[in-house]
């Protein structure tokens, strides 16, 4: 296995497709940002990921985390890698300088985590929640909590967790039972159990900051009665962890993948905590962290897609098997050819490439939206960015992780029998990335969130705004080579515009309908967004192709492959949605509960 930071592809997306440096330095906080600075940060991130982190990946999978006497020991090399990560200032990258941060854009943090998750998914989960915890506390905690905890989180001296899930309450947070009782001195006493807590116990840092959802004694039932609490592993005095809090890890899970990540059961046995934000409004504060986590998980899909593609391509160039249907003159005397010459292998590799590069464009675009939503001086434009980001977040989390899993499966297929054994290392990526389709809200839940909260809730206005932007690009794309691509993308957008009122009307009589077609709608909107960015990328590559024919020619070929052989998936998606609509209009039941019981 190998990993080469895809610096040229990253630079193309940031600086040619999105003009990221010029966009960012229009914001007062980023006036000093330029392309040279961004490139330097990206190169250093690539060096850390490939030279320091990647060598720990296979070791982490083989050794896993060990649970001994209530403590977790991480695999060989994890602690040393984290120390270097912290000393280099990576945790502070996109945090406020007022708390020790570097004040750089979220966009750079996104690039960093693409490479971290692509080189060691399990390890990256330990620092992965830092920025979400920082964001929740930054926006909702009182000044006293901020002053004590944010500098430690920003510096990476203390890691953080997100404690939501309980044995009886997975994604349905309204069912949680953990209790928080007010104490005399302004803090709270927490009692309860949480499960599936990533990084809930480890040996990487001297303290762990748990952000915990719990109920106050007088809380109303359901999700409206949830509050958020900060519960440290050690109670600090003057910034130094002193007294052990009543927070205990009772065990770690033995999992299909991400063996190097400690997935913990945590018990709060009259633990001391502090309220974050207002009572019974904990979900609003926690959603800051959850949305950051969902974007990170989507980036995970991109990172894995890139790594498995790199290795599948390298293997396909080296592996000699059978004669290709079409052979160059210089190979006519050879008994067999590299499998990269076989059409079936080319199809899998091109699909991997199209989704990896398309996913990167979508992820970086969303990161720029996040920077704009936080830093643009115009409040109306900030609101627009935030609205568009909300629309795209479930797509990024679900579609990009689905494609990461698919890419890993295709890589194993290309490796053949050598992919199925542990020796080559490629099968680890399939096992590791599977969890990304499940945690932070399963991909099915993401699809429901998209259609119910992000599309139907405002009668499609958010989606129509995105489609308007896509139409602007379509209207300005004049190169004859892209006529068919423009027509295909136009058709997808037209279908989406027509579907929203039809779904809205039908759902009044058939409340199951939006839930039944949610997965198809998520991929349909996802393809509209990805097709839009591929069209923009192709036109730029066409304009620049004389400068570097191989690089830009590959971009054009990949875009064409996407439009010709991947985007047609939307026809099947639309057909499924139409069938559900027809059944709904004709009064035919599409509830199959009786058949399943």
Describe the structure.
The chain has 597 residues and is of the alpha+beta class. It has a domain at 447-588. Helix content is 58%, strand content 12%. The protein has 21 helices and 11 strands. The chain has helices at residues 7-17, 20-24, 35-53, 57-63, 78-87, 106-119, 121-128, 130-140, 143-155, 282-318, 343-375, 379-415, 417-420, 426-434, 443-455, 461-476, 483-509, 513-544, 549-566, 569-585, 593-596; strands at residues 66-68, 71-73, 158-163, 179-182, 188-198, 207-214, 227-232, 234-237, 240-244, 247-252, 263-276. The strands form 3 sheets. Strands 3, 4, 5, 6, 7, 10 and 11 form a 7-stranded mixed β-sheet that branches. Strands 1-2 form a two-stranded antiparallel sheet. β8 and β9 form a beta hairpin. α12 (379-415) packs across α14, α15 (443-455) packs across α18 (513-544) and α18 packs antiparallel against α19 (549-566). The longest helix has 37 residues, at 282-318. The mean pLDDT is 96. Keywords: FAD, Flavoprotein, Oxidoreductase. Residues 162-270 form the Acyl-CoA oxidase/dehydrogenase middle domain. Residues 280-451 form the Acyl-CoA dehydrogenase/oxidase C-terminal domain.
């Amino acid at each position: 296995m190998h990993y080469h930071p895809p610096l040229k592809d990253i630079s193309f997306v940031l600086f040619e497709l999105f003009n990221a440096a010029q966009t960012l330095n229009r914001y007062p906080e980023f006036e000093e940002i330029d392309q040279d600075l961004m490139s330097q940060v990206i190169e250093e991130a690539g060096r850390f990921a490939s030279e320091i982190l990647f060598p720990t990946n296979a070791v982490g999978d083989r050794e896993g985390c060990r649970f001994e006497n209530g403590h977790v020991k991480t695999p060989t090399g994890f602690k040393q890698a984290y120390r270097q990560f912290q000393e280099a200032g990576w945790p502070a990258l996109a945090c406020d300088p007022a708390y020790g941060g570097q004040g750089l854009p979220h966009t750079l943090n996104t690039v960093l985590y693409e490479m971290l998750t692509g080189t060691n998914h399990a390890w990256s989960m330990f620092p992965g929640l830092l920025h979400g915890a920082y964001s929740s506390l930054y926006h909702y905690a009182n000044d006293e909590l901020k002053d004590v905890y944010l500098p430690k989180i920003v510096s990476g001296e203390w890691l953080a967790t997100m404690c939501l899930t309980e044995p009886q309450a997975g994604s349905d947070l309204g069912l949680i039972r953990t209790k928080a009782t007010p104490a005399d001195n302004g803090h709270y006493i927490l009692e309860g159990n949480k499960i599936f807590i990533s990084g809930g116990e480890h040996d990487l840092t001297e303290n762990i900051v748990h952000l915990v959802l719990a109920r106050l004694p007088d809380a109303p039932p359901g999700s409206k009665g949830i509050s958020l609490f900060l519960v440290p592993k050690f109670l600090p005095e003057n910034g130094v962890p002193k007294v052990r809090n009543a927070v205990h890890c009772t065990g770690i899970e033995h999992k299909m993948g991400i063996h190097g990540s400690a997935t913990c059961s945590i018990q709060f046995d009259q633990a001391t905590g502090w309220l974050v934000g207002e009572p019974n409004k904990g979900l609003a504060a926690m959603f800051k962290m959850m949305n950051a986590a969902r974007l990170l998980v989507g980036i995970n899909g991109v990172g894995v897609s890139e790594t498995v593609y790199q290795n599948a391509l390298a293997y396909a160039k080296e592996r000699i098997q059978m004669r290709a249907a079409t052979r160059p003159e210089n190979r006519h005397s050879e008994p067999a050819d590299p499998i990269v010459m076989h059409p079936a292998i080319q199809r899998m590799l091109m699909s991997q490439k199209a989704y990896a590069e398309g996913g990167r464009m979508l992820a970086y675009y969303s990161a720029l939206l996040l920077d704009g939503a936080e830093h643009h001086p115009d409040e109306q434009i900030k609101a627009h960015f935030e609205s568009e980001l909300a629309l795209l977040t479930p797509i990024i989390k679900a579609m990009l992780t689905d494609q990461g899993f698919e890419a890993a499966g295709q890589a194993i297929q290309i490796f053949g029998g050598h992919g199925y054994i542990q020796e080559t290392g490629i099968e680890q990526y399939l096992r590791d990335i599977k969890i990304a389709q499940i945690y932070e809200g399963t991909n099915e839940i993401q699809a429901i969130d998209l259609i119910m909260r992000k599309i139907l809730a405002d009668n499609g206005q958010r989606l129509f705004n995105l489609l308007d932007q896509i139409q602007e690009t379509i209207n300005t794309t004049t190169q004859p080579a892209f006529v068919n691509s423009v027509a295909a993308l136009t058709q997808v957008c037209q279908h989406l515009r027509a579907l929203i009122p039809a779904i809205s009307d039908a759902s009044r009589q058939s409340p199951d309908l939006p839930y039944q077609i949610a997965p198809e709608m998520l991929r349909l909107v996802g393809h509209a967004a990805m097709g839009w960015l591929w069209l923009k990328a192709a036109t730029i590559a066409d304009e620049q192709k004389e400068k570097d024919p191989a690089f830009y020619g590959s971009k054009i070929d990949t875009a064409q492959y996407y439009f010709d052989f991947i985007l047609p998936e939307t026809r099947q998606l639309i057909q499924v949605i139409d069938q559900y609509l027809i059944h709904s209009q004709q009064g035919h039941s599409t509830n199959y509960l009786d058949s399943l019981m």
